[in-house]
Design goal:
Membrane topology: Single-pass membrane protein
Strand content: 35-45%
Number of helices: 4
Mean pLDDT: 78
Shape: elongated
Transmembrane segments: 87-109
Structural class: alpha+beta
Protein name: Late embryogenesis abundant protein LEA-2 subgroup domain-containing protein
Domain Late embryogenesis abundant protein LEA-2 subgroup: 140-243
Radius of gyration: 51 Å
Keywords: Membrane, Transmembrane, Transmembrane helix
C-alpha cells in the first residue's frame, strides 16, 4: 500500500492569494479514484487562476486629473508663443505708446517749427596765403513761435567753414527762450587759421575773391530741451543748424559786390 501526501499550492492570483492543499494522510491508500479527484481539482483551480489572469487589471484606482484653469492674457500668450513673440509684442506696445504720446503733445501744445535766420553778415577780412586771415561778424535770429513751449539752449557753438574747410568756432552763452519770443545771437569769428587748400579749393577761392563774394558755411551745434507748459521738460536733443551764406567782402563799411541778403538756416536732428 502506497501512502503519500500530495500538496498543491496555487499562489498569487490577481486579486487574492489562493492556497489549495490536498493531503492524503497515511491512513488512506492512494487509489485511482483519489488520483483522478486530485487531478480534477488541480485543473479546475488552474482554470480559475487563468480566468483571473485574463481579466484586465490596472492596479489601484487612479484619481481623475485635476483640471487647472488659467486666465488667458498676455503672459499665457507669451508662454505659448515664445520669447520672440514676447519681444515683438513689447516693441509694438512701445511704438503704440510713443505714437499716442506724440499725438497728445501735438493736440495739447500745437508745436510749431523754430525758425532761424542769419539777418546780417559783415566780412571785413578774408585773405589767404599759407594761412587764412578772417574777420566775420553775424547776426542770427532765433524765433520761437509756440504759445505753450519754451526752449532751454544748454549749449551753443557756432563754427565757420570755407567749403568743407573749418577755420573758426565760437561758444555762445546758454539761455532760456520763452513763448513767442525772438532771440538774437551775435557770433564774431576773428583770427587766423592754418588751412590746407588743394588746387581746386584754391581755384574756387581766387574766383570768389575776384567776385568779391565768398561762400561761407556756418553751423550751429546745439543742445536743447523743450519745456511743455509750466513743468514738463523733455530730454536733451542735439539739432544741427546749417546756414549756407554768400557774404560780400566789405571795406570801410562798404561793399563793391552788393549787400548781404538774409538767409534762412536748415535744421536737422
Amino acid at each position: 500500500m502506497l501512502h503519500v501526501t500530495i500538496t498543491l499550492i496555487l499562489s498569487l492570483t490577481p486579486y487574492k492569494h489562493t492556497l489549495i492543499i490536498y493531503t492524503l494522510s497515511p491512513q488512506f491508500s492512494l487509489s485511482l479514484f483519489d488520483i483522478l479527484s486530485v487531478s480534477l481539482s488541480f485543473f479546475v483551480a488552474m482554470e480559475e487562476k487563468q480566468f483571473h489572469l485574463d481579466e484586465a487589471y490596472y492596479g489601484p484606482s487612479v484619481p481623475p486629473p485635476t483640471r487647472s484653469y488659467r486666465r488667458h492674457g498676455s503672459d499665457d500668450w507669451c508662454d505659448d508663443c515664445g520669447s520672440c513673440c514676447c519681444l515683438i509684442s513689447f516693441l509694438l506696445q512701445l511704438i503704440g505708446l510713443v505714437v499716442v504720446t506724440i499725438a497728445l503733445v501735438f493736440l495739447i501744445f500745437h508745436p510749431s517749427k523754430v525758425k532761424i535766420h542769419v539777418t546780417d553778415a559783415s566780412l571785413t577780412l578774408f585773405n589767404f596765403t599759407t594761412t587764412l586771415n578772417y574777420n566775420l561778424a553775424l547776426n542770427i535770429t532765433i524765433r520761437n513761435p509756440n504759445k505753450m513751449i519754451g526752449i532751454y539752449y544748454d549749449s551753443i557753438e557756432a563754427s565757420a567753414f570755407f567749403g568743407d574747410r573749418w577755420f573758426g568756432s565760437v561758444s555762445l552763452t546758454p539761455f532760456y527762450q520763452g513763448h513767442k519770443n525772438t532771440t538774437i545771437l551775435s557770433p564774431v569769428f576773428e583770427g587766423q587759421q592754418l588751412v590746407s587748400l588743394g588746387a581746386s579749393d584754391l581755384s574756387v577761392f581766387n574766383s570768389e575773391k575776384s567776385a568779391g563774394v565768398y561762400d561761407i558755411n556756418v553751423k550751429l551745434n546745439l543742445r536743447i530741451r523743450f519745456k511743455l507748459g509750466n513743468k514738463l521738460k523733455t530730454w536733451r536733443i542735439k539739432p544741427e543748424i546749417k546756414c549756407d551764406l554768400k557774404v560780400p567782402l566789405s571795406s570801410n563799411g562798404k561793399s563793391g559786390a552788393g549787400t548781404f541778403e538774409a538767409t534762412e538756416c536748415h535744421t536737422s536732428f
